[in-house]
TrEMBL record:
Keywords, alphabetical: Ion channel, Ion transport, Membrane, Transmembrane, Transmembrane helix, Transport
One MF annotation (Gene Ontology) recorded for this entry: voltage-gated potassium channel activity
Location within or outside the cell: Membrane
Swiss-Prot/TrEMBL GO biological process terms: action potential
Signal peptide: none
Domain Potassium channel: 138-209
This protein's name: Ion channel
Cellular component terms per the entry's GO annotation: voltage-gated potassium channel complex
Membrane topology: Multi-pass membrane protein
Organism of derivation: Akkermansia muciniphila
Domain of life: Bacteria
Length: 249
């Protein structure tokens, strides 16, 4: 994280924009492929799909070329590789089935590969900083808040869930508010929980987009390497005075 703090802001912004852009493109690719499978795609949809495909190809080729370990890169990014395989072009080589069925199968494979690329990034996001456990805890607190406001104010459980959610997210429309002392204390607790969740979400987004590993657990050897890199970063940030050994007078 020390290296990230010393990184120029424009570099941080570019990394953030890149990660967010690739996630968005993967989601758009899934949507376009699903549309193509259900209805006849419009010309602009086909063009957009092809443009996104070549962006994925360029992205994979660039990252593969600059990676230190080519085999490790391929091993760690199987869905990125699968997403750029032109299944429709490959299946046109075979004549053992009707062309329409082959192309439909190819589009299903494209949909699967695009979806896996998107879901892989989502899974890495929720693994960052243990964010999935924070989400589970927040959900439990919201449900308990709904039960609590039901007991304290006599509110129905569906309305209690709605009130608990909007209070925890600090939206608070004001259409429903507690009047009892216990209900007010519960509202304050939910507000504080929501503020903490928003702070955790912000930290998780920053760590996910700026960390090269995206929250994934590293093998033991790679953890050692990362620890050594961190120590080297700490040493590089030390001044000459810090490096001078202390001598008693």
């Amino acid at each position: 994280m020390n290296a990230l703090r010393r990184m120029p802001r424009h570099i941080l912004f570019l990394r953030l924009a890149y990660q967010a852009g690739m996630c968005l493109l993967a989601l758009v690719a899934v949507t376009l492929t699903a549309i193509d499978l259900t209805t006849e795609a419009a010309e602009w949809e086909v063009t957009a799909d092809r443009v996104i495909y070549w962006i994925f190809v360029l992205d994979y080729v660039v990252r593969f070329s600059i990676s230190r370990s080519k085999w490790l890169f391929v091993k760690e990014h199987p869905w990125d590789l699968l997403a750029i395989i032109p299944f429709d072009a490959l299946f046109r080589l075979f004549r053992f089935a009707s062309l329409g069925e082959i192309l439909r199968l190819a589009r299903y494979l494209d949909l699967f590969s695009y979806a896996m690329r998107f879901t892989t990034r989502i899974r890495r996001f929720f693994n960052t900083n243990g964010f999935k456990y924070i989400c589970i805890a927040a959900l439990v607190i919201i449900l308990l808040g709904a039960v609590g406001i039901h007991l304290a104010e006599g509110m129905s459980l569906p309305n209690g869930i709605w009130w608990s959610f909007v209070t925890a997210t600090t939206v608070g429309y004001g259409d429903t508010y507690p009047v009892t002392t216990s209900g007010k204390f519960l509202a304050v607790f939910l507000m504080l929980t929501g503020i903490g969740f928003v702070g955790t979400l912000t930290s998780t987004i920053t760590s996910f987009f700026l960390s090269p590993h995206g929250g994934e657990a590293l093998p033991y050897r790679e953890e050692e390497i990362e620890a050594i890199k961190k120590k080297l970063d700490d040493l590089s940030s030390m001044t000459d005075e810090d490096m001078t050994p202390w001598r008693p007078c």
